[in-house]
Amino acid sequence: MIQFHAQDIPFTIKNKSVLKRWVSSSIEKKKRTVGQLNFIFCSDAFLLDMNKQYLQHDTYTDIITFDYSSEDKTLPVSGDIYISIDRVKENAIKFSKAFENELHRVIIHGTLHLLGYKDKTKAAKEEMRKQEDSCLKELGLS
Q1: Which residues touch 40 (CB under 8 Å, ≥6 apart)?
Q2: Among 7, 12, 92, 119, which one is least packed by beta carbons within 10 Å?
Q3: pLDDT in tens, 74-130
Q4: Model pTM?
Q5: What is the rounded CA–CA span in Å between residue 133 and residue 139?
Q6: Rounded distance, CA 105 to CA 73, Å?
Q7: Which H or E element spans position 46?
Q8: Element (H, E) at 94
Q9: 102, 91 Cβ separation under 8 angstroms
Q10: What are phi and psi of 110, to 5 degrees?
Q11: Which has the closest alpha carbon to 105: 126, 76, 83?
Q12: SS3 content of the chain, % helix, strand, coil (to 5)
């Protein structure tokens, strides 16, 4: 089950049913099943507090993903994905993208983390971007 929530800000995502099908399809194309996925939209301040508390990072970020999936890849993909709407807005401007396009990229980025993709090395970042682009092409909204 995929759900969208707003934490400390008023935010409503557009095209919920389309996005739910897209995220589900992206997971299923990787031969996995969907468990409980929560996308939580919040402010910079909220995500900064989480970054400090759980990751000991004193920096702003656009996303933090908590993976509740088992190491057993036959079990469903589950997790909480916190997304800073402030960061998404700023990054959309920085990269000359529409807000929704950037939001979709961040949504699928978190999903890909739950599927095991990393972004700590140059090669891993390149693979992550390739996977994001492939998934975004499937969405057709971005």
Answers
A1: 5, 6, 7, 80, 81, 82, 83
A2: 12
A3: 889 999 999 999 999 999 999 999 999 999 999 999 999 999 999 999 999 999 999
A4: 0.94
A5: 10
A6: 24
A7: helix 44-55
A8: helix 85-94
A9: yes
A10: -65, -40
A11: 83
A12: 50, 20, 30
With 0-12 / 13-18 / 19 or more C-beta atoms within 10 angstroms meaning exposed / middle / buried, residue 127 is middle
Close Cβ partners of 22 (under 8 Å, ≥ 6 residues apart): 108, 135, 138, 139
- End-to-end CA separation in angstroms for the chain: 23
Helix axes 122-139, 99-114, angle to 10 degrees: 120
- Domains, the chain, ordered by start: 2-139 (3.40.390.30)
Q: Where in the chain does DSSP place strands (E)? A: 2-6, 34-42, 63-67, 77-84
